[in-house]
Design goal:
Elements (H helix, E strand, L loop, with lengths): L2 E6 L9 H14 L6 E7 L1 H12 L7 E5 L15 E8 H10 L4 H16 L8 H19 L8 E5 L1 H10 L6 H10 L4 E5 L9 H10 L4 E5 L3 H10 L3 E4 L19 H13 L4 E5 L3 H9 L4 E5 L1 H5 L3 H20 L3 E5 L7 H5 L6 E4 L1 H10 L1 H15 L4
Parallel strand pairs: 1-2, 2-4, 5-6, 5-12, 6-7, 7-8, 8-9, 9-10, 10-11, 11-12
Antiparallel strand pairs: 3-4
Helix pairs in contact: 1-4, 3-4, 4-5, 7-8, 15-16
Length: about 400
């Protein structure tokens, strides 16, 4: 039976991922063995839930969640009908947003807790009956939430392949092989959703010839990474890739070492974004998982942010890696709620990718070095397919 989600609220600070809540609720119903029952969830504001709270519970003011079992208070004959309905859950998004900030949770994790709490009330749990009942209900809540935690993603997470290091190998000899254009074709045939290349000012790997041919041959999506300098901007405007990603660029670095300082470069970046927007080219900003940078990216009109995952991948201890992961998860949700589309990448490999791919707010991963390195042993087609399997498996809710 379907889960019916309805939205009756006006909250400019909120952007609710309906698909995510739908999947999590369906998973909860399966865990509670009531997947064949219907359930209605209504998201309202504080004003509406205050009225409901007063009218039905005779309590003043807003609350976070209300539950109304299907046959509660109805004629006894209604309960005898062959209809599998659990009832209604009403949630105040205003209150959920306040509580998410108070408890240092993402909005969607708070809404998931409220859905879980409301569902258990519909199934007969009631923490208000006694201290024992409260403990039983809380234990069940925690059990269900743990089962939802990993993996948490959608199978819609895409994998884009950066073929820069095919060009790095070519440039080491100064010849024509291996060809990054041919590599891009192999990646697409293996299932990649896009091709990423970084045209650097010093042309250390990808060169002008590569991007011209890639623009003609890539069938999925061509993402041109670039620094915001005049020459490269002019090339991008002439080439018209499917999107560009603005990244910081230092002459001496081996690879991109961190995200853009968008907050400090607003004036220059907004000019580049305006030029690209007028040319019909969406812009992504490569940023560290930092709230100030996310906010600045939104303010200057970026379409996407790509969150830098390097510190997470490079973490030495499990504690440090967990801290970096939680920061990425929080910032990805913050970017999503601001209206940005969210990508992630840098340093991801066959061990670190799954958890990032399991974040519902991230729609695409950009991975290059790890795949090209593995390709030296198993071939490029196999290396891409192996990584794609990781990404897709991470997107399945158990």
């Amino acid at each position: 039976m379907p889960v019916d989600l309805s939205f009756h609220y006006n909250c400019p600070d909120c952007r609710v991922n309906e698909d995510l809540l739908q999947r999590r609720t369906c998973a909860l119903l399966r865990e509670c063995r009531v997947a064949d029952h219907g359930l209605s969830i209504l998201f309202v504001d504080d004003q509406e839930i205050s009225w409901l709270n007063d009218h039905y519970r005779h309590k003043s003011g807003p609350t976070n969640v209300l539950s109304f079992p299907f046959a509660d208070g109805a004629d006894i004959t209604l309960a005898q009908l062959p209809v599998k309905e659990l009832g209604d859950i009403i949630i105040s998004v205003d209150t959920a947003l306040r509580e998410s900030r108070e408890f240092n949770q993402s909005l969607h994790d708070r809404l998931t807790w409220l859905i879980t709490h409301g569902l258990l009330h519909l199934l007969g749990y009631d923490h208000e009956l006694s201290e024992t009942d409260a403990i039983v209900m809380e234990d069940k809540e925690q059990e269900l939430l743990r089962k939802l935690q990993y993996p948490r993603s959608t199978a819609m997470t895409h994998l884009a392949i950066n073929v820069d290091h095919i060009a790095t190998i070519r440039q080491a000899r100064g010849g024509v092989e291996p060809d990054p254009v041919a590599a891009a074709a192999i990646c697409e045939m293996a299932g990649a959703a896009g091709i990423v290349v970084h045209l650097r000012e010093d042309r250390r790997h990808i060169i002008d010839r590569d991007i011209r041919l890639l623009r003609e041959t890539v069938k999925t999506k061509l993402n041109l990474e670039m620094g915001a300098n005049k020459e490269i901007i002019a090339i991008a405007l002439a080439l018209k890739p499917d999107m560009i990603t603005l990244v910081p660029e230092k002459r001496q670095e081996l690879t991109t070492e961190g995200g853009l300082d968008v907050h400090a470069q607003k004036k220059s970046l907004v000019k580049t974004i305006d030029r690209m927007t007028k040319a019909g080219i969406p812009v992504s900003l490569f940023v560290d998982p930092d709230a100030r940078q996310i906010k600045a990216a939104h303010e200057i009109g970026a379409t996407f942010v790509e969150i830098h995952t390097g510190r997470y991948c490079d973490a030495i201890t499990e504690k440090a890696r967990e801290q970096e992961f939680q920061t990425i998860a929080t910032m990805a949700e913050e970017a999503y709620q601001a209206g940005l589309r969210v990508y992630a990448g840098h340093g991801l490999n066959y061990q670190t990718t799954a958890r990032i791919a399991a974040l519902d707010t991230i729609e695409e991963l950009s991975i290059g070095h790890a795949i090209i390195a593995r390709a030296a042993f198993v071939g490029l087609d196999r290396a891409v397919r192996d990584m794609l399997t990781i990404v897709q498996e991470a997107g399945r809710i158990s």
